[in-house]
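dumping this here so i dont lose it
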């Protein structure tokens, strides 16, 4: 663990003999950011002002957004677990794009795990205020699984009541696909070694156009390009620690196989001065979506934890940032 302040801004992360794949990934990341600046300038020039309503902002994609396919190319299923938890995917903004992130919620052992996870996705709010959803609470919701690994979800049309653009509609449907497949996999209801498809019926019929944009006319699989390039799985938003160390776990991808982290003191829910920072390796290596973990022993206080990709061509530039607010109550080190 490093104890540096402020965060390092040196040129790190990509060796001189980096592969062509690494170079393409970095170049696409930088192009995405340049497009973001141009798109924002154009939208301000044409519109004169922007809406301050978060709900309206969530319903539309940023003008500069592009696919994240340069980063994540495969999204493995969750593994079966004996714990009673529901995996729920949300939408979240990062670097002027919208990605999929996951949280876990407690489950009742008597409830169908797929229906329960989807109902939580459509009827509750994310714990992390950086995440959001555009689904409405459905009046009817059911699910079944065929012997061919096809999950069929039947939902009432009132779940699609909100007006969104095509980009958010695509991601919202992917949110359903990810949540349904995750719940089925964690409950051991599907064969995780083969492809899992999700077919969505609306009021018992196929072919419905979800949110007015996405035709639900054929079974769907996970779209890996929509997965967040970095996300913190643990600690959860607002977690309070009485026992240290504070264990950080997550999932990410980077051209170098290394992610950067920072622990900043927080006041009123906002990051203040940096306290600690460092790097962590992704187990699977460069350009592969994989797990990371590290431990911290900070003094009592409120903190914002950030994990991100450092752009090797623009030292200090953060890509794919995910953050969590945490509280450390005392230092009872085990």
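and the seq i came up w/
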């Amino acid at each position: 663990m490093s104890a540096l302040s402020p965060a390092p801004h040196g040129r790190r992360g990509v060796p001189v003999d980096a592969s062509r794949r690494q170079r393409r990934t970095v170049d696409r990341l930088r192009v995405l950011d340049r497009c973001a600046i141009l798109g924002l300038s154009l939208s301000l020039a044409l519109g004169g002002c922007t809406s301050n309503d978060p709900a309206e902002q969530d319903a539309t994609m940023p003008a500069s957004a592009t696919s994240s396919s340069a980063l994540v190319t495969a999204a493995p299923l969750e593994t079966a677990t004996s714990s009673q938890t529901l995996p729920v995917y949300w939408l979240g903004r990062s670097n002027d794009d919208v990605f999929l992130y996951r949280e876990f919620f407690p489950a009742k052992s008597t409830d169908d795990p797929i229906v329960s996870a989807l109902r939580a996705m459509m009827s509750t709010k994310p714990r992390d205020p950086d995440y959001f959803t555009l689904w409405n609470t459905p009046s009817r919701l059911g699910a079944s699984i065929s012997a061919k690994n096809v999950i069929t979800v039947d939902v009432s049309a009132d779940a699609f009541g909100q007006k969104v653009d095509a980009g958010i509609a695509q991601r919202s449907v992917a949110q359903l696909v990810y949540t349904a497949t995750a719940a089925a996999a964690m409950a051991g209801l599907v064969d995780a070694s083969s492809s899992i498809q999700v077919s969505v019926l609306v009021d018992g019929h196929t072919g419905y156009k979800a949110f007015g944009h996405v035709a639900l006319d054929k079974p769907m699989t996970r779209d890996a390009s929509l997965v967040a390039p970095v996300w913190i799985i643990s600690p959860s938003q607002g977690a309070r620690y009485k026992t240290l160390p504070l264990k950080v776990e997550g999932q990410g991808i980077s051209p170098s196989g290394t992610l950067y982290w920072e622990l900043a003191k927080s006041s009123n829910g906002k990051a203040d001065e940096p306290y600690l920072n460092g790097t962590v390796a992704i187990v699977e290596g460069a350009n592969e979506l994989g797990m990371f973990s590290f431990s911290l022993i900070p003094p009592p206080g409120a903190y914002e934890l950030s994990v991100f990709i450092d752009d090797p061509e623009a030292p200090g530039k953060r890509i794919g940032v995910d953050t969590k607010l945490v509280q450390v109550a005392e230092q009872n080190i085990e």
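The CA atoms of residues 143 and 153 lie 4 Å apart.
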